[in-house]
C-alpha cells in the first residue's frame, strides 16, 4: 500500500539513516522502535509527507489516505469540542455542497450536446458515486462515540476547545483522525495524553478497525497489544520483524548474539591473517600467498555489532537538604472552576521521605492538586509547606518549555551554580549529551531527548520535595527504568503523577486515589492497592473511578 525505497536522511553533517526500504501493507500494525534520537519521528514525518528525505522515495497510491498525529500539537481555538471533532467530515460536506451546486447548474443549462455539458454530467456522476460509496453513517453519532471513547463527557461537547489543556486538545485531534477513517494511521506517542481507560479504548479501536497503523510508543503494554510487526531503527538502518514487541526483543537479542559471535570470529581471522602477512612478507616462496591475503583484507566487509543502548546513563540526585518532618500539610482544600467541582475538602499530610503516587482518571484533579502545592492556582482551604522545603517540579509540558534556540550546554549552563559546574561534562555524558551532542540546539532534539534534558535541569539544584507530573512521557523504555532507579534512591520526598503501572511498581509506598471529587489515601504500594481492589491493571482503577 505504501512503499519506502532507498530512504536516506542526512542532518547537520550526520546520517540519521541510509538506504532504508520497506512496505506498509493493508492491516499492518507496526511498532517503530529504537532509542531516542534514532530517527523514528523523522521517519514518521517523511511517511506523512511533512518532510523530504535527502534521497529516496515514498510511493503512496492516489486513493490512499494517510493521517498523522504528532507528539506536540495544539487544536485551533474558536470552535466547540464537538464542532472541532466534526471537522473530520468537512471534506464530505464540501463534496455534498459541490454536487448540489453542479446539479443546480445542470437545471439551468440547455446546451445538452455540448462538450462542457457532458463534462459536467461526468463530474456529477463521479462525485455522486464517490459520495454515496462512503459509509456515511450518522456522523453526529460517530463523533459522540469517538469523543466519549477518548474520555470526554457529553457536557464537554458544547465547551470551547480553549477551555482544555494541551493534552485534551490532543485527544480532539486524535478523534478527528480516527473519524476520517484513513487507510494508514501514523501515531507518534498517542498514549502520552490519555488516561488508562482511554488507552484501552484506543487499543480496541485500532485492533478492530482494520486500518494500517505505524506507531511510536514507549508504552510496553500498548505496543504489545496492538502491533503485529516491529521495525527497529538502529545505527542508520532498519530491521523488520514480523512479530509483536515482546517477540521482537527476544529475536533482537538472538540477532545480536549471532553478530557478536561473527564479529569475534572475524577479528580472530583478521589477526591470524595479519600475523601471516608480517611473518612471511619478506619470504620469496610465500609472496603470492601474502599478496592474496593483503587483497583479501582490503576487500573484507567488516562485521558490525548493532549498538546496544548501554550508554552510561546514571541518574543520581544530589543529597537532599533536610526538610521539616511534614513537607506538605493539606487541610480542607477544595478547587472549583465555576460550577465544576474538581475536588472538595481534601485533607492529607505528607511526611518527609514519603514516595507517593497520584492515580485516577484524567480530569479528577491530580495535576490540579500539584498546581495547588506549587501555588500556581488559587484554591479554598489551607495548604502549608514545611520548614526548608525546596521543590523540584517537572510538569507535563516541561520539555516544551525549554528555549529552542539554546544549545544543550547553554540550557544547563544558565542555571548551574557552585561546585556542580566542575561536573558539567560528566553530567552531560551521563545523560547521553556528551561530545558534539552538547552543542545541539534544543529544537534539534527528539521528544525523549528534551524530556531527558528537562530532568537533567532538576539535578542541578538541591531539592528535597520532587514533584513529577507524567515524567515518563517520551522517554524510551531503558531511560524510564534508569529514572525509576534514581527515584528509588532519592532521599527526599517524592510525588509522582503517572498512569504507568510498571513505573510505579516498586517505586511508591503510598497511593492517593482521585475520583468523585475526593482524594483517598491508601497506605500501601501500587501492587497491594490493586490486589486489594481485585484489579489486574490500572485500567480497571481508572474505569471504576
Number of DSSP helices?
18
Strand content: 15-25%
Low-confidence spans: none
Structural class determined from secondary elements:
alpha/beta
Which percent bin holds the helix content?
25-40%
Mean pLDDT across residues = 84
For the sheet with most strands, the description reads: 6 strands, mixed
**Number of separate strands:** 18
What's the arrangement of strands in the largest beta sheet? 5-6-7-3-8-9
Radius of gyration: 28 Å
Shape, principal axes of CA atoms:
flat
Q: What's the end-to-end separation, in Å?
A: 42 Å
Q: What distinguishing features does this structure have?
A:
single chain; 545 residues; alpha/beta; six-stranded mixed beta sheet; 18 helices; flat; Probable ATP-binding protein YbiT
Notes on the protein architecture:
The chain has 545 residues and is α/β, with parallel strands linked by helices. Helices cover 39% and strands 21% of the residues. The protein has 18 helices and 18 strands. It has helices at 40-47, 81-85, 90-108, 115-133, 139-149, 166-179, 196-209, 220-226, 245-280, 287-299, 366-373, 408-413, 424-430, 447-458, 477-489, 501-504, 526-532, 538-544; strands at residues 2-11, 14-24, 29-33, 55-59, 66-69, 184-188, 212-216, 229-234, 237-241, 328-337, 340-350, 355-359, 380-385, 391-394, 465-469, 493-497, 510-515, 518-522. The strands form 4 sheets. A 6-stranded mixed β-sheet has the order 5-6-7-3-8-9, with helices on both faces. A 6-stranded mixed β-sheet has the order 14-15-16-12-17-18, with helices on both faces. α3 runs antiparallel to α4 (115-133), α5 crosses α6 (166-179) and α9 (245-280) runs antiparallel to α10 (287-299). The longest helix has 36 residues, at 245-280. The chain is flat. The mean pLDDT is 84.
Amino acid at each position: 500500500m505504501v512503499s519506502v525505497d532507498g530512504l536516506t536522511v542526512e542532518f547537520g553533517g550526520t546520517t540519521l539513516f541510509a538506504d532504508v526500504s520497506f512496505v506498509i501493507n493493508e492491516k499492518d500494525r507496526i511498532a517503530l522502535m529504537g532509542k531516542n534520537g534514532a530517527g523514528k519521528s523523522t521517519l514518521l514525518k517523511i511517511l506523512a509527507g511533512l518532510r523530504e528525505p535527502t534521497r529516496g522515495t515514498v510511493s503512496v497510491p492516489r486513493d490512499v489516505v494517510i493521517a498523522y498525529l504528532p507528539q506536540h500539537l495544539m487544536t485551533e481555538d474558536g470552535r466547540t469540542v464537538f464542532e472541532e471533532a466534526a471537522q473530520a467530515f468537512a471534506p464530505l460536506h464540501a463534496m455534498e455542497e459541490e454536487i448540489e451546486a453542479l446539479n443546480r447548474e445542470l437545471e439551468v443549462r440547455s446546451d445538452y450536446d455540448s462538450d462542457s455539458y457532458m463534462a459536467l454530467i461526468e463530474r456529477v456522476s463521479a462525485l455522486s458515486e464517490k459520495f454515496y460509496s462512503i459509509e456515511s453513517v450518522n456522523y453526529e453519532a460517530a463523533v459522540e462515540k469517538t469523543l466519549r471513547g477518548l474520555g470526554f463527557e457529553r457536557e464537554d461537547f458544547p465547551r470551547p476547545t480553549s477551555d482544555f489543556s494541551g493534552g485534551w486538545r490532543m485527544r480532539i485531534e486524535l478523534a478527528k483522525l480516527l473519524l476520517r477513517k484513513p487507510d494508514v494511521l501514523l501515531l507518534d506517542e498517542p498514549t502520552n495524553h490519555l488516561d488508562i481507560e482511554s488507552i484501552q479504548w484506543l487499543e480496541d479501536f485500532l485492533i478492530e478497525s482494520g486500518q494500517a497503523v505505524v506507531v511510536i510508543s514507549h508504552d510496553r503494554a500498548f505496543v504489545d497489544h496492538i502491533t503485529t510487526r516491529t521495525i527497529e531503527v538502529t545505527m542508520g538502518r532498519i530491521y523488520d520483524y514480523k512479530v509483536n514487541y515482546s517477540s521482537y526483543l527476544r529475536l533482537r537479542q538472538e540477532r545480536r548474539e549471532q553478530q557478536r559471535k561473527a564479529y569475534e570470529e572475524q577479528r580472530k581471522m583478521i589477526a591470524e591473517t595479519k600475523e601471516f602477512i608480517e611473518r612471511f612478507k619478506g619470504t620469496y616462496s610465500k609472496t603470492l600467498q601474502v599478496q592474496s591475503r593483503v587483497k583479501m583484507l582490503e576487500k573484507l566487509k567488516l562485521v558490525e555489532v548493532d549498538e546496544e543502548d548501554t550508554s552510561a546513563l546514571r541518574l543520581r540526585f544530589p543529597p537532599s537538604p533536610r526538610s521539616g518532618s511534614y513537607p506538605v500539610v493539606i487541610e480542607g482544600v477544595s478547587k472549583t472552576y465555576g460550577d465544576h467541582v474538581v475536588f472538595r475538602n481534601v485533607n492529607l499530610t505528607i511526611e518527609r521521605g514519603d514516595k507517593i503516587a497520584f492515580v485516577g482518571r484524567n480530569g479528577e484533579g491530580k495535576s490540579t492538586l500539584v498546581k495547588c502545592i506549587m501555588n500556581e492556582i488559587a484554591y479554598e482551604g489551607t495548604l502549608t509547606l514545611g520548614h526548608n522545603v525546596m521543590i523540584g517540579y517537572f510538569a507535563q509540558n516541561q520539555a516544551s518549555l525549554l528555549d529552542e534556540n539554546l544549545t544543550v550546554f547553554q540550557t544547563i549552563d544558565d542555571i548551574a551554580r557552585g561546585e556542580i559546574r566542575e561536573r558539567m561534562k560528566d553530567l552531560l555524558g551521563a545523560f547521553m549529551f556528551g561530545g558534539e551532542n552538547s552543542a545541539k540546539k534544543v529544537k534539534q532534539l527528539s521528544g525523549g531527548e528534551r524530556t531527558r534534558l528537562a530532568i537533567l535541569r532538576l539535578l542541578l539544584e538541591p531539592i528535597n520535595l520532587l514533584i513529577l507530573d507524567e515524567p515518563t512521557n517520551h522517554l524510551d523504555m531503558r531511560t524510564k527504568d534508569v529514572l525509576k532507579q534514581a527515584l528509588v534512591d532519592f532521599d527526599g520526598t517524592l510525588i509522582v503523577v503517572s498512569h504507568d503501572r510498571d513505573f510505579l511498581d516498586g517505586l511508591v509506598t503510598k497511593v492517593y486515589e482521585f475520583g468523585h471529587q475526593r482524594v483517598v489515601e491508601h497506605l500501601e504500594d501500587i501492587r497491594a492497592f490493586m490486589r486489594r481492589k481485585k484489579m489486574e491493571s490500572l485500567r480497571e482503577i481508572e474505569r471504576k473511578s
